[in-house]
């Protein structure tokens, strides 16, 4: 584990000892939360603003900083402590840090930064949840990217992760698809093509908007499917399998896999049994021929479990799913749901129902809520077709990426070009989805996501490829020992030393955006270093090559936690 991992803790320890002499007790957590990284190396590597101590010590923050400094001893690994107004600034022993940090990065490689925060707990992360018989569109990429990244972060921090995908393979949307296919497309050959599958569903929605008679036909199909009609069930199984096959291709491209798949259809029987138990125990009740659970006194409205026509809703299926998860994995410590914020109310209703009925596991459920992905023209929807299909979107992205690559490598073989364009496009998609706070709604701008110069996946990949090119050109062996450090070398070392803290924060917040933004910042600092500090054929080539190799490894580790593959050449 890198020596830099406990620097903030060492500062906290030193501050607590100093405050003890004043008989002041403040929690480690509060002090830790106040430690900052100054904007300039001249102001130190870490800083503690003393404003929060003013009310407790009844002194001016500047006086507090001076008094604490007078009794503080340099924590291990630090060279100096200074004050600037109300701030106490801590300066690392940078030469020692450089040697230790770079050596550890180069020796530990992909294991550098690993933590044991999870302590081997079993955690399920349920994500993606694309419904069969519908489109996999750009909006699905966000949930899939967040879920995969969270899974990797949890694993990197010592957890055992079970990736789960709960897919809607039954219900009204399937009935609509089968109705439309049988009525208008029965001569079409069935195929595992995302565009074709999506077009049938969109066609159904548009036709149903024009006729109430059609809606009754769909409802009848839904009832027959739920009761097990032989002919319709056969068509359902065939088209379900084709839909799942089309998704599997996408998951492979997005560097995502699943350990377990759950399906709505499998939850129907048990879901109805659970509802009957809730009725018997008077937790649920009938209302206008539907079965509901009234959560209004908890400000959660009314949760409908069974429609008035007797068909089951996904609310009741979700109750069965919770039970199924903990039966399948009895050692499961937590089940994390990665769901769009449109489902926030539903999730809260689920947890409250589990709690008040005594059904169990409510304290083991957690959800990561993410905002919608919108086009510049508005919200995407698989209902109306106002979306970008993943397949069409990827084609446009790879086309643009191929043009950029050809500018740099006009004689590149077709196979290499296509593979490189795909990786760059996936990086552009995923990074754009992950760099912004999970709960924010985002407008996906294709040009911005593929900008090779700005805050984008391609820019970060280019920084990695540039580092690889430098290493190939150098004939020197890396040597992390240096007695004199230039400003840009210090900045790069300092940014690399933050990696473990960023991993820890990403783990604590379950937020890939922390790592995404760190990756961009690290790439920026490296490019500034590269422009001002010649590497190959310089007097400090051996030392700087060690910095380049260390940078490349940390960036690779950081991108791996985002589910993004690096490439050696752009």
Write structural notes for this entry:
The protein is α/β, with parallel strands linked by helices. The protein folds into 3 domains: 3-92, Gyrase A, domain 2 (2-Layer Sandwich); 127-379, HUPs (Rossmann fold); 390-561, Orthogonal Bundle (Isoleucyl-tRNA Synthetase, Domain 1), CATH 1.10.730. The chain is built from 21 helices and 14 strands. The strands form 4 sheets. The protein has a 5-stranded parallel sheet with strand order 6-5-4-10-11, with helices on both faces. The protein has a 3-stranded antiparallel sheet with strand order 1-3-2. A hairpin with a 2-residue loop joins strand 2 (78-84) and strand 3 (87-92). Helix 6 (138-156) crosses helix 15, helix 7 crosses helix 9 (212-227) and helix 11 packs across helix 12.
Which class best fits the helix and strand makeup? alpha/beta
Shape: globular
Number of H- or I-type helical stretches:
21
Helix coverage percent of residues? 40-55%
From the structure provided, what is the oligomeric state, counting identical versus distinct chains? single chain
Radius of gyration: 28 Å
Q: Please tally the β strands and state the result.
A: 14
Proportion of strand residues:
5-15%
Number of domains: 3
CATH topology of the largest domain: Rossmann fold
Distance between the termini: 32 Å
Poorly predicted ranges: 1-5, 380-385
Give a topology summary.
Layout: H1 7-20, H2 28-34, E1 46-49, H3 54-57, H4 61-71, E2 78-84, E3 87-92, H5 94-108, E4 122-126, H6 138-156, E5 160-167, H7 172-184, H8 194-208, H9 212-227, H10 230-253, E6 260-263, H11 268-280, E7 285-287, E8 290-294, E9 302-306, H12 314-328, E10 332-340, H13 344-357, E11 365-370, E12 373-375, E13 378-379, H14 390-408, H15 414-434, E14 442-443, H16 446-449, H17 457-473, H18 487-497, H19 499-509, H20 512-532, H21 541-561
Parallel strand pairs: 4-5, 4-10, 5-6, 10-11, 12-14
Antiparallel strand pairs: 1-3, 2-3, 7-8, 8-9, 12-13
Helix pairs in contact: 5-18, 5-21, 6-15, 7-8, 7-9, 11-12, 14-15, 17-20, 17-21, 18-20, 18-21, 19-20, 20-21
């Amino acid at each position: 584990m890198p020596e830099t991992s406990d620097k903030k803790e060492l500062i906290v320890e030193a501050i607590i000892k100093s405050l003890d002499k004043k008989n002041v007790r403040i929690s480690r957590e509060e002090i830790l939360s106040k430690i900052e990284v100054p904007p300039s190396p001249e102001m130190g590597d870490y800083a503690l603003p003393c404003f929060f101590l003013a009310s407790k010590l009844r002194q001016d923050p500047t006086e507090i900083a001076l008094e604490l400094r007078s009794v503080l001893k340099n924590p291990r690994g630090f060279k100096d402590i200074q004050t600037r107004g109300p701030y106490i600034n801590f300066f690392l022993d940078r030469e020692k840090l450089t040697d230790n940090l770079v050596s550890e990065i180069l020796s530990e490689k992909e294991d550098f930064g690993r933590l044991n925060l999870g302590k081997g707990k079993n955690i399920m992360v349920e994500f993606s949840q694309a419904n069969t018989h519908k489109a996999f569109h750009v909006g699905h990429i966000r949930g899939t990217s967040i879920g995969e990244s969270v899974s990797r972060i949890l694993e990197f921090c010592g957890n055992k992760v079970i990736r789960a995908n709960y897919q809607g393979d039954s219900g009204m949307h399937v009935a609509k698809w089968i109705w439309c296919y049988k009525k208008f497309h029965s001569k079409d050959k069935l195929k595992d093509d995302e565009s074709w599958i999506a077009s049938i569903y969109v066609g159904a929605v548009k036709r149903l908007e024009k006729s109430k008679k059609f809606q009754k036909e769909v409802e009848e199909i839904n009832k027959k499917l739920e009761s097990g009609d032989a002919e319709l069930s056969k068509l359902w199984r065939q088209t379900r399998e084709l839909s799942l096959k089309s998704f599997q291709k996408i998951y492979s491209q997005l560097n995502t896999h699943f350990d377990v798949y759950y399906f709505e259809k499998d939850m129907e029987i048990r879901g109805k049994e659970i509802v009957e138990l809730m009725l018997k125990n008077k937790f649920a009740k009938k209302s206008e021929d539907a079965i509901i659970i009234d959560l209004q006194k908890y400000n959660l409205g009314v949760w409908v479990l069974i429609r008035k026509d007797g068909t089951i809703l996904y609310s009741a299926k979700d109750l069965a799913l919770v039970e199924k998860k903990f039966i399948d994995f009895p050692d499961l410590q937590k089940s994390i749901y990665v769901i769009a914020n449109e489902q926030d109310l539903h999730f809260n209703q689920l947890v409250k129902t589990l709690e008040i009925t005594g059904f169990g596991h409510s304290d083991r459920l957690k959800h990561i809520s993410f905002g919608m992905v919108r086009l510049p023209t508005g919200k995407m929807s698989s209902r109306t077709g106002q979306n970008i299909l993943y397949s069409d979107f990827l084609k446009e992205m790879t086309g643009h990426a191929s043009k950029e690559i050809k500018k740099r490598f006009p004689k590149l073989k077709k196979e290499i070009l296509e593979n490189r364009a795909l990786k760059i496009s996936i990086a552009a998609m995923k990074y754009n989805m992950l760099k912004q706070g999970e709960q924010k709604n985002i407008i996906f701008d294709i040009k911005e996501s593929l900008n090779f110069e700005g805050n984008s996946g391609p820019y970060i990949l280019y920084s990695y490829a540039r580092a690889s090119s430098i290493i190939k050109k150098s004939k020197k062996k890396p040597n992390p020992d240096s007695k004199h450090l230039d400003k840009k070398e210090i900045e790069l070392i300092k940014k690399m030393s933050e990696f473990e803290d960023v991993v820890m924060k990403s783990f604590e917040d379950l937020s890939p955006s922390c790592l995404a933004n760190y990756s961009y910042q690290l790439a920026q600092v490296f490019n500034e270093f590269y422009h001002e500090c010649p590497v190959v054929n310089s007097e400090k080539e051996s030392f700087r090559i060690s910095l380049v190799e260390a940078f490349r490894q940390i960036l690779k580790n950081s991108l791996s936690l985002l589910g993004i593959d690096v490439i050696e050449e752009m």
